[in-house]
Structures are given as C-alpha cells and as structure tokens.
Amino acid sequence: MEHDMGYDLEEALEREGLSRDDLKALRSPPIEGVPSTITDKQLACFLDACDKNIDETRKVLKIYYEVRKNGPELFSNRDPLGAPIQQCLQNQDYFPLPTTPSGYSVVFHRLKNSRASNYHFDEAIKTYFMTIDSCLYTQGPRPGIIFLFDMKNVGLMHLTRINMSSVRKFFSYLQDGLPAKLKAIHVVNVVSFFDKIMYIIKPFIHAEILNMLYLHTSNANFEKFYEEWIPKSCLPSDLGGELKSIDELHQDHLKEFERQRDYFLAEERQRNGTVVEESTEKMLRSLSID
Predict the structure, then answer these.
(1) d(CA 80, CA 130)
(2) If DSSP codes are grouped into helix, strand and coil, which group holds residue 280?
(3) 188 beta partners
(4) In what order do the strands lie in the sheet with 213-216?
(5) Stretches in the chain below the pLDDT threshold 50
(6) Residue-level pLDDT at 281
(7) Domain extent listing, the chain
(8) Which fold would CATH assign to domain 1-274?
(9) Residue ranges of the CRAL-TRIO domain (predicted)?
C-alpha cells in the first residue's frame, strides 16, 4: 500500500511483544479476501488484538475484510474531506484521547447538538469507524481500547434515525472483526430512555460485550471511573478532566483527519484492488474450465 499507517512499528512490536516471524506467518498461505498488499503495521494490530494466536488472527482478518466488503454504506467513500463526512464532523464530536496509564486507547463520541435532522445514522457510524482507524493509525496496537460515548444531546427523535441493518453490521464488526481488544464501553450522561435503546441493540450484542457496558448518569460520582478506567489527565475538561474542552479536542482532530486523508483513500483502494483481483481470478478459472 502506497501510504501506510503512521505509528512506529518497531516500538509497537517491542512494547506488545509481537514477533516479525508471526507477521510473516500470517501471509502464508494467503487469506481469501485479504489484500496481498496488507502491510506489517496493519497485520500487527490484528495479531495483537488476537493475543498473538495465528489461527485466530487469520479468522479475524477474513471477517474484517468480509464486513467491509459487504457494508459499503459504512466502509466506502471515506474521504475525510468529502461532504457527507464533513457534515458529520460539523454536527458531532469524534476524537481519540491520550492512552491511559494502562496503555489503553480511548475513542470519544457525542452529538454536538440535539437536532435529530442533522443526524445521519449510516454516515455517523462510518465516521465513528474512521475515528477508530485514526486512533489505530497514530497509536498502533495496544493492550486494549475503550469506547467513551456522551449522550448529553441525544433525544428520542434520534431513535427514528436508526437503520437496523447498520446496527447489525456495527456490532458484527466490533465483536468479530475489530483489529483491537475491546476492554470497555462507557456511556456518560445516560438518558432516561436508555432502556429503549437497549431494546433495539440487545439482539445484536454478545453477552461478553454486555458485561463490558458501563452506564454513568449525569449526577454519578466519577471518582471510581477516574481511578479504575480513565484518569482526569486523559479526559476533556467537560468531563472533569485536565485536557482541553470537547470542542477544542474535536477541532484538533479535524486537522489530524485531514493529515490522514491519504491513508484513508489508499486503504480503500487497497480493498477495492482485492475485489478486482478476485473477479479476475474467477474469470480466468471460468475460461480455463470452458
């Protein structure tokens, strides 16, 4: 791939105890649907997410690319400067936070305003997945990743914007194809109708993921959260942290997104090239049989 991920591979291999021999082992035999141009930096994220288990890593790689191939509404046209993504970035906040003392990555998301008409579900999920990729791009493989959602501006009308097919694909990807170890999902400023949200999403969630879900109301005591999960030094000032405000952190990440544009475009070309290769192989096999 002409534009690789941005993290330091040598540092990550040493930090996470990953082996170059294992990276090599993932390439032979080739995995159907996985680009032959996949880079060591990409592979390292999967290997670490699967605790260095080669067979499991190969399985997750296959699922990852199958989900992306079968979900173009969530994984295609991922230009950070494109109008649909820009619309999301203007109406919602997305950014990775600094890694925690335990080494965990943290990805933050909330609605910037409460107007449901500004919320386009598929594009919002696409932009969230891009934010996860952006986090991996800069931070590389880590002991785990935490998702932090703020429901401050969520209203009942937002539920009418939900696409059930995309909900299913969202959880399929997070649970079976994510190139990172999901450690926890923290939801702050939980709304009173969260039970209705759970009714919608629960059929798609594994019990293991449900056990990782932590809910925090607006009047919750966050001291335990700061101590056990994300310290104030890694949180926005809006959530009692010592960093910049959510709006400022989001604006900073917009610049980072723009800097990563070449990678997002190259990654999509990488996947599309695999589809072309597979189509050509099928055509050649058909001609051979004839």
Answers:
(1) 9
(2) helix
(3) 150, 216
(4) 92-97, 105-111, 145-150, 182-188, 213-216
(5) 275-284, 287
(6) 45
(7) 1-274
(8) Phosphatidylinositol Transfer Protein Sec14p (3.40.525)
(9) 82-247
